[in-house]
Amino acid sequence: MRNAECGMRNDGGVRFSARSAEGSVAPGFSRGYARIPNDFAPHSGAGNGHPSCAAMRRDENLSFGQPPAEAGGYRSFAATRRGSARASDLRIDGRFVRTISAIVLSLLLSPLAFAATLRVNGSTTVNAVATEAAEVLRAEKKMAITVDTQGGSSGGISGVADHSIELGMSSKPISDDDRKKFSGVNFVSTMVGQDAVALVVSKDVWEGGVKSLSRQQARDIYEGKITNWKQVGGPDRRIVFFNKEPGRGTWEVFAHWLYGDPKKAPATSHREVGGNEEGRTKVASTKGAITQLSFAWAEGDARIHALGAKLDDGRVIVPSSSTIADHSYPMSRPLLFVTDGAPKGEAKVFLDFVLSPRGQSLVKKHGYLPLPIGPGAAGAK
User: Fold this and answer.
1) What is this structure's pTM?
2) For residue 227, what are the contacts with CB-CB under 8 A and spacing of at least 6?
3) Which of 19, 180, 307, 349 is most buried per CB count within 10 Å?
């Protein structure tokens, strides 16, 4: 690309950059500059003392600005704010004007031209459903959506609180501590499905005879008081505990079952894992391993096995669709999207889709329990 440099004053324009192939113009960062293809030279302008603008050199910018008053009123680009400009009295080649007009028109007609991006972040458990729902809405409604899992459920809740996102994903209920910490936020939770936290073990532990754990046994393992599987009827093998990062929804549900209040859980030195995929892979590849995992991520994987929960009365409740639905399994939990106030705008469109029959089919597809369908079913459409 060649560029011409004008000797106009730099007190009214904005910076523009252009692609030489199309001659397109896009806003930049400061003022008074523009680039144009070499075959679209500006009119030199007539007027007392007006600069020529005819010099063409490579790798320089064509300076458009407010010319001196004695230039006879000739103006090039004037801006009202960064990134906006008007071409008033700018006399350039007609093809350039047509090119720019076509580009601007195509942008204005684009469905995404003025669409705000819906930002979704939080739980890796809810993420699978959110990601696929976002794909459908991008394709069908041309929505701009980003989905991330930074910080897990706690990251989703804090993101809603500081307005860095519009939708938080959480696999744990909003706690009183959350509401106290973010006292100015009106957290509204929308349940889209159900899941459970399972204690999953590696295949060698399962085949060695460990099928369930009581709450006390699980607590003693977590606190390091039980260190070998033979102490709970299993093989003579050291226990390797992969602990979910504290603050993750999965960890909080587990800690609530053990201690009644996650704040009562002691600090441990267990190796930590983040998302469900990482936890599942670690247990599957490590003998003597155990971790807390979304039940949906444990089903159908022969390398790992979900343990039953032995209740105080001696009954063993295994995680399943029925025990999750009736909450007899003690670590059942809701899958939530969280907003600040009632969902509105793009967030409401997203949630309406997830609550619809199509959206609920995605919940079921990813191994979670969809909401009940029928008269009076909360959250169902």
Assistant:
1) 0.65
2) 238, 239
3) 307
In three-state secondary structure terms, 350 is helix
As a whole number of angstroms, the distance between CA 364 and CA 376 comes to 20
Nearby residues of 191 by Cβ (< 8 Å), 6 or more positions away: 334, 335, 336, 371, 378, 379
How far apart are the C-alpha atoms of 166 and 87, rounded to whole Å?
A: 37
Give dist(CA 118, CA 100) in Å, integer.
Answer: 30
Helix (H, G, I), strand (E, B) or coil at 296: helix
Residues whose CB is less than 8 angstroms from the CB of residue 215 and which lie 6 or more positions away in sequence, other chains included: 257, 258, 309, 310, 312, 330
Contacts of 141 (CB under 8 A, 6+ apart): 349
pLDDT digits 0-9 by tens, 254-307: 999 999 999 999 999 999 998 899 999 999 999 999 999 999 998 889 999 999
In which residue are the tokens 């939990």 written?
333
* 20 token code pair: 């030489």
**C-alpha dihedral (102, 103, 108, 110), degrees to nearest 10:** 110
CB atoms within 10 A of CB 367: 17
